[in-house]
Amino acid sequence: MANSLYDFGMIGLGVMGRNLLLNMADHGFSVIGFDKDAAKNNALETAATPGTTVKGVSELSTMIQLLERPRKVMMLVPAGQPVDDVITSLLPLLEPGDVVIDGGNSHYTDTLRRVQQLREQGIHFMGIGVSGGEQGARTGPSIMPGGDEDAYAKVKPMLEAIAAKVKGVPCVAYLGKEGAGHYVKMVHNGIEYAIMQLISESYTLLKLGAKLNNDQLHEVFKSWNLGSLQSFLVEITADIFLQNDDKTDKRLIDVISDKAGSKGTGKWTSQDAMELPVAVPTIDTAVAMRTISGYKEQRLEAAGIYKAPENTLHAPVDMWIQQVHDALYFATILSYAQGLAMLHEASKDLKMDIPLPEVVKVWRGGCIIRSSLLEVFTQAYQQNADLANILLDKGVAYLIESVEANTRSVVAQAATAGVPVAGLMSALSYFDAFRTGRMATNLIQAQRDYFGAHTYQRIDMPGTFHTEWQHNQ
Ligand SMILES: NC(=O)C1=CN([C@@H]2O[C@H](COP(=O)(O)OP(=O)(O)OC[C@H]3O[C@@H](n4cnc5c(N)ncnc54)[C@H](OP(=O)(O)O)[C@@H]3O)[C@@H](O)[C@H]2O)C=CC1
Ligand SMILES: O=C(CO)[C@H](O)[C@H](O)COP(=O)(O)O
Fold first, then answer.
1. Distance 260 CA to ligand 2 centre (A)
2. Residue 302 Cα distances to 117, 152, 463, angstroms
3. Catalytic residue among 55, 177, 178, 192
4. What is the pLDDT along the chain (473 residues), one digit of tens a residue?
């Protein structure tokens, strides 16, 4: 490779950058990576498949000089200031027509700003969401590109080669203008938060209601993964229960602290949903539950003050497992429904032209929220590409109706027994509000007009009305 130029460059050779670059090399592309840390450059070259062309360098200018023109460079560095720092270092080294990709979890508004900034210099900037974690990056992630369509054409062959494949179709497609790729990835992560919360609630319900040990929990989740709940998150959950702790004779799950971390993409989804506005209460709840998990000391103090209700979860084991299965299935569909409805609204409101039929296809493989349900949603969007909410699809309605009664039963029993299942409850409440033709919000309108002359509309005639309410009679 002494006199040849490389097809693709990567900045940041951490978990994602290293593995994505090795994936590209395995598909016949010659690749070069830059990291300030020489050890990471060596690790990249050592991990390369024999016969592939992979180089690591410690100088950014060296990497840029060694790239085929127009240059195609991706960065996989932490979101925020590091992305701007990389852009500042890159700009003097690039030429008009070069393509710069941010493959990290950046906020889409930052991506919009960077698209403008680089456009002024004739450089294409693309925000591309990548999902699948370490393993996915190495063997086939789900890829969510947005931005300049001409720039996408330049990297499309490479992205299609490295993406996960479902029925031979690559899990990558052009997902809309400017910040659309990062917007779709943000909502993907919001749905990820919701489903993870729901699975953790199901775990509690199985432990308390059926007294399952870790081996039994493994068996239940393993069998669920063979049926309608088939998904990456259910699959890894089954594995987790079998992992032994290497420091004690316990299972690892039983010694992990219940304080849950987060890097912010779930919170962004909730914040942006409020801005639109679109209701995503199960995602909001999942974010809130991670926050409450951090109140460890207060929770321990409160546990000493408030007596827990008696554990009244005593259904026959097989029946309880089926009921919890159905509740998880119901609420998982509701989580996708909320996230997809948000994308539908954002696509119009933010003028990003996000093609929802393509989004659900891209999520079928490689990503953290991949599941057999994505096939159902793909069919729903084949019927109606502009579906505002997948709950309005007849096929989805049939699935919901089949598990609705068991969901109500589980939520009611959990409430009586004092088991925290806010994710399941929020999904059921969203559903009940969504399927209600006349909500009680007429009273809210009356109150607003009473105290603030905010006006209201009537059901029997057009127009806007205000009433001089008879105060405190
Ligand atoms: N891990 C995951 O499962 C997923 C992560 N992502 C996203 O991908 C991005 C990268 O994540 P990940 O690979 O896990 O992170 P890592 O921390 O493993 O790697 C980040 C890399 O960026 C480098 N870096 C940091 N700051 C700079 C800078 N200013 N200039 C140049 N290089 C810099 C680091 O180099 P050094 O350490 O030498 O400073 C490191 O090599 C993030 O946005 C993350 O949210 C997306 C999907 C999944
Ligand atoms: O993007 C991802 C997967 O698609 C990351 O794994 C995800 O961001 C993890 O988020 P958090 O640390 O907030 O749980």
1. 12
2. 51, 54, 51
3. 192
4. 555 899 999 999 999 999 999 999 999 999 999 999 999 999 999 999 999 999 999 999 999 999 999 999 999 999 999 999 999 999 999 999 999 999 999 999 999 999 999 999 999 999 999 999 999 999 999 999 999 999 999 999 999 999 999 999 999 999 999 899 999 999 999 999 999 999 999 999 999 999 999 999 999 999 999 999 999 999 999 999 999 999 999 999 999 999 999 999 999 999 999 999 999 999 999 999 999 999 999 999 999 999 999 989 988 999 999 999 999 999 999 999 999 999 999 999 999 999 999 999 999 999 999 999 999 999 999 999 999 999 999 999 999 999 999 999 999 999 999 999 999 999 999 999 999 999 999 999 999 999 999 999 999 999 999 999 987 55
* Given 185, 201, 267, 358, the catalytic residue: 185
DSSP, res 390: G
Domain ranges of the chain: 8-174, 185-435, 438-472
Query: 438-472 domain in CATH 1.20.5.320?
Result: yes
Give binding residues for substrate as ranges. Answer: 105, 131-133, 188-189, 193, 263, 290, 448, 454
Residues 6+ apart with CB under 8 A from 468: none
**Is 247 one of the catalytic residues?**
no
Closest ligand 2 atom number to CA of residue 131 = 4
Q: Judge whether 72 and 155 are in contact, CB under 8 Å.
A: yes
Domains 8-174 and 185-435 share a fold: no
Task: Give the nearest ligand 1 atom to 131 CA.
Answer: 47
CATH superfamily of 8-174: NAD(P)-binding Rossmann-like Domain (3.40.50.720)
Report the separation in Å between the CA atom of 104 and the middle of ligand 1, taken as the mean of its atom positions.
8
Tell me the CA distances in angstroms from 8 to 101, 120, 352, one per residue in order.
11, 23, 27
**How many Å lie between the centroid of ligand 1 and the Cα of residue 209?**
41
Residue 278's closest CA among 173, 380, 186, 371? 186
> Count of CB atoms within 10 A of residue 412's CB?
12
- Is residue 192 part of the annotated active site? The answer reads yes
Instruction: Provide residues with CB under 6 Å of ligand 1.
Output: 11-17, 35-37, 40, 76-79, 82, 85-86, 104-105, 130-131, 133, 263
C-alpha of residue 66 to centroid of ligand 2, in Å:
33
In the 8-state DSSP scheme, what is residue 317? H
DSSP 3-state of 173: coil
Residues with CB under 6 A from ligand 2: 105, 131, 133, 189, 261-263, 265-266, 368
- Please state the atom number of ligand 2 nearest to the C-alpha of residue 290: 14
CATH-assigned architecture of domain 185-435: Orthogonal Bundle (1.10)
Q: Identify residue 64 by its one-letter amino acid code.
A: I
